[in-house]
């Protein structure tokens, strides 16, 4: 019997106004022509220095701003430049070659920091080693632009007495007039095709999101999900198939089966709600950031629906005037290798305060060699900042000095945890959903 005949109105999925803002991450017409990465550092320093100089007049108005070349021993001043972190344990190509030639296998460390690390500040005129306890090398990475207060010592170092980073960028007010509960669901690290992927577990997630699972209350909540964001590493394809060599006929299934299986799941999802899919480091996409959208031809079933959107990584969008930005996790994973923090959320906070999504690019994180812009600069503070493919679910509401409020979300790998994340657009509260096939 139809719902209307039973006197019950059928549930309808709620809608939200969506704007894709990935244009600045799209590579259109640019080509590799031997560009040097110095260009992106120059653009970053130029833009960030202009910003920091507007703050210096309030921070230390009595001190002169000098270049590195203009330092004078014993005279206090401020210098603005890009930090370079000298690391004894940082991997190099020559080291990798020598390890390959070694008969004894060496254990690779997960973190390359050491007590011997030190910081250097560089501008167009030169570089100077930083000294003193004010700047702890553990908390910083190469690529951050800061203002430093101090003086040159007799040894030629610059003794740091204080420093200033850009801080949280300005934020557009979040709309507060909505009284409706609307949810955005996040999931990452599906790894379809790997031994860790459990198809029954993910089918439970699909059935829940699409409203085919649960009691009346759960179905009502499912109808309030206005969008699903899949934040990278959706497929697991053996790296050997990306070497450029031809694939033997007997191996075709190994290459295509994960893609075909993911497309079946995606088709179920996009037939019920809008879905954004981002590439990750293990997906068949370009390796360097910003990663370009996964080609629609990979998903013959899902791409037939206008609710399917293949996005860049990083991904930026606006949903009912709530601003989102997020990555598939490479930026935070790289910070974890070259600096230290109490948790992944703290790394996320730092990128916002430094106003840069991927400060270690291009030093240790691959990125496109831009010559006239740095697309990873954060000019407007998002309301929601998410990062995929992390070890566990974490969240925090970050409050800024100018009433900024940012929901930070660390999304765990679904294939390992069975955890997805739900965010309420109305109040930015979020919670985890756990799916398990264990009895």
Short descriptors:
single chain; 439 residues; alpha/beta; Purple Acid Phosphatase, chain A, domain 2; OB fold (Dihydrolipoamide Acetyltransferase, E2P); six-stranded mixed β-sheet; disordered N terminus
Describe this structure in words.
- With 439 residues, the protein is α/β, with parallel strands linked by helices.
- The chain has 2 domains: 18-30 and 171-434, Purple Acid Phosphatase, chain A, domain 2, CATH 3.60.21.50; 38-164, OB fold (Dihydrolipoamide Acetyltransferase, E2P) (Beta Barrel).
- It is 21% helix and 24% strand.
- Strands 1-12-13-14-16-15 form a 6-stranded mixed beta sheet. Strands 11-10-9-8-17-18 form a 6-stranded mixed beta sheet.
- The two termini are 34 Å apart.
- The model is unreliable at 1-7 (pLDDT under 50).
- This is DNA polymerase delta small subunit.
- One of its GO terms (molecular function) is DNA-directed DNA polymerase activity.
- It is found in: Nucleus.
Please tell me the CATH architecture of the largest domain by its name: 4-Layer Sandwich
Which fold name is given in CATH as the topology of the largest domain? Purple Acid Phosphatase, chain A, domain 2
**Which shape, going by the Cα principal axes?**
globular
Question: In CATH, what is the class of the largest domain?
Answer: Alpha Beta
Look at the helices and sheets and give the structural class: alpha/beta
* Strand fraction: 15-25%
Order of helices and strands: EHEEHEEEEEHHEHEEEEHHEEEHEE
Helicity range: 10-25%
Mean pLDDT: 90
How would a crystallographer describe the biggest sheet?
A: 6 strands, mixed
Number of helices: 8
Number of strands: 18
| Spatial gap, N to C terminus | 34 Å
Radius of gyration: 24 Å
The stretches of 5 or more residues where confidence is low (pLDDT under 50) are 1-7
Domain DNA polymerase alpha/delta/epsilon subunit B: 184-393
Family: Belongs to the DNA polymerase delta/II small subunit family.
Organism: Carex littledalei
Pfam families: DNA_pol_D_N, DNA_pol_E_B
